[in-house]
Amino acid sequence: MKKLISFSLALLLGVAALAQSGYKVGDKATDFKLKNIDGEMVSMADYADAKGFVVIFTCNHCPYAKAYEDRIVALDKKYASQGYPVIAINPNDAKKVEDDSFENMKTRAKEKGFTFPYLVDGDSKVARTYGAKYTPHVFLLNKQDKDLEVAYIGAIDDNYRDAKGVEEPFLENAINSLKAGKKIEKTTTRAIGCTIKWVQQ
Asked: Band of the pLDDT at 192, cuts 50, 70, 90?
């Protein structure tokens, strides 16, 4: 009986730990080194002049991710030159979703004119570390000396269906607040998208 109780407690603690995994606003994020669609390895350390990063976990097949592609390109074109470049990461298992294969990533990036790195998280490890759950899922990072502080987590805006119908551009508001040295009003929002198709560990 005691063994059963101990096992049940351990299981509950494990589930709780899993639910709380990933970054929260204010945490220090770790860098990564992942393969880009051009075959080159990319890390945030490569961007010496960056003031922060817009890290977006996304993919090819998800309709929510597709709905945001043009907006992500526009965000990078607007903010990369201001010190906040986009880095897109595909954490999905291509064995589960063929559309998310590396070759299809290259094709999709060319078709949509991606202006930013599109990296493959081959073991889903980076997504797990960050606590990403959906595609798309945004993590806005702000450079603080040598650290990368998580400043915002969640959705790009409040209307995935219609870019012209957006009333709250959550991510843009957060970036603009950082640029102005102001407090971000909404530091977390609910990411809406497809669940990540995890690579089994």
From this structure: very high
Residue-wise pLDDT tens digits, 114-143: 999 999 999 999 999 999 999 999 999 999
Domains of the chain, each with CATH number or no CATH: 25-195 (3.40.30.10)
What is the widest separation between alpha-carbon atoms in the chain? 63
Among 92, 12, 56, 34, residue whose Cα is nearest residue 171:
56
pTM for the structure as a whole: 0.90
Facing residues of 147 across strands? 144
> What residues are paired with 196 via a beta bridge?
none
> Helix, strand, coil proportions of the chain in percent (round to 5)?
35, 20, 40
What angle do helix axes 102-112 and 63-79 make, rounded to 10 degrees? 60
Distance of alpha carbon 141 from alpha carbon 28, whole angstroms: 9
User: CA 179, CA 119: separation in Å to the nearest integer?
Assistant: 26
Please, what is the Cα angle at 41 between 38 and 47, to 5 degrees? 105
